[in-house]
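Tutorial handout. Part one gives the primary structure; part two gives the three-dimensional structure as tokens.
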Amino acid sequence: MPNLVMYGLALTLLAGVLSGNFMLPMKFVRRWPWENLWLVFSVVSLLILPWILELFLVGNPGRIYASLTPGQLLLPFLLGVGWGVAQVLFGLSIARLGLALGYAVIIGLGSLGGTLVPLFFKHPEVFGTAHGAIILVGLAVMIAGIAVAAHAGSRREQGQKRAAGGGYALALALAILCGLMAPMVNYSFAFGQAIAEHAVQLGASPVCAGYAVWPVTLAGGLLPNLAYCFYLLTKNKTWGVFRGPWLAETSCASLMAVFWMGAIAVYGVATVYMGALGTSVGWGLFQIFNIITANVGGLVTREWSTAPKTALRTLYAGLALLTVATVLLAAGNR
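Part two.
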């Protein structure tokens, strides 16, 4: 495997580690409810950090965006809006459908769609090759690993009650919709490369040019997240919480944002080093490393300390399948 592809694989692993751990600071929040924390996290991660990264690593944002057609900006923005809606639907779906089925449907569809859609539209010739067959087998093993890991999580959470609201059919429909929309952040990056190409033409490094795409994509994703946070803040009458002590909670929310945006930024660079299939195979690998890291982090922080041994064995089987899927997808990207 070429050195550059190996470097891209290592960066994808780093992105997965950052993404898999971005929720850890939330464990230290004591006073703020979810909507207050998520509002600060959303503003920092989806608005402030993307612009800082572009200004320092790309430069000339005004010239770059002025050189683009409205359609070249609108498509990644709208795909970002779709991903933002999926962010809101994720929590609602898990609460109503349960962890095992909800997680398997959402992450499974998101991983599958985020890998196959860019591959189908940008490199359809791969499907008729041996490498394409290896990628498809790797995707099948990945979906199996996600389902097994989700089942393990369900067995760990057996004693917890699900949130009320909505019937099973509606909950399943929400989960499917969420799974279909979740990879739109990857679609936006994959199909918004005209922005990166214009950045290169104006002097940006090809490795860093992708940072010009994220402010457009994530601005779209910010809108649904803001709308949902404003709704909850008004419904729960928690606006006043912002008037109290805020340093510790704001620091936790900002650290979450740094981890999450760091993961997205590193993933964007990794796709460049992974070659032509970076935004397809790279997405599948990113999801695998994300899931593995999150579950290993749960083991380290003793979230599984009271889980039955059968649940732990199931988790290890799921992680083993995801490891095999990693090898297959990396081999298919050669």
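Part three, for discussion. Residues 159-166 have pLDDT under 50 and may be disordered. The chain has 13 helices and no strands.
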